[in-house]
Write a structure and sequence with these properties.
The radius of gyration is 13 Å and the shape is globular. It starts with 15 loop residues before the first helix and ends in an 8-residue tail after the last helix. It has 3 helices and 3 strands. 26% of the residues lie in helices and 15% in strands. A 3-stranded mixed β-sheet has the order 1-2-3. β2 and β3 form a beta hairpin.
């Protein structure tokens, strides 16, 4: 579990995804099977991860990892990692 931590030193806040991945690794985890993000309202649509967080997630995921994002109607949208970050870079 993670949350965004915004501060006046924008853009140096902390993304929820980075916090959740750090917590996962700290607890001995190494692979993301499913991850969800919630946020935004009023005509924002589904709130997917920023580009930097997509790369962070890709480092601990595979192409079939499930990404869930909630939209303004309260409906969950389901994506796969490969759709949100095609041809991503991975360290060996």
């Amino acid at each position: 579990v993670g949350c965004n931590v915004e501060n006046a030193a924008y853009p140096l806040g902390s993304c929820a995804e980075a916090a959740a991945i750090s917590a996962m690794v700290q607890e001995g985890g190494g692979r993301i099977v499913k991850i969800a993000v919630a946020g935004g309202k009023h005509d924002v649509g589904s709130c997917t991860h920023c580009g930097g967080c997509r790369q962070r997630i890709a480092e601990f995921a595979d192409d079939d990892t499930v990404i869930l994002a909630i939209d303004d109607t309260g409906e969950w949208q389901e994506y796969r990692m490969a759709a949100l970050l095609p041809a991503s870079f991975h360290l060996p």
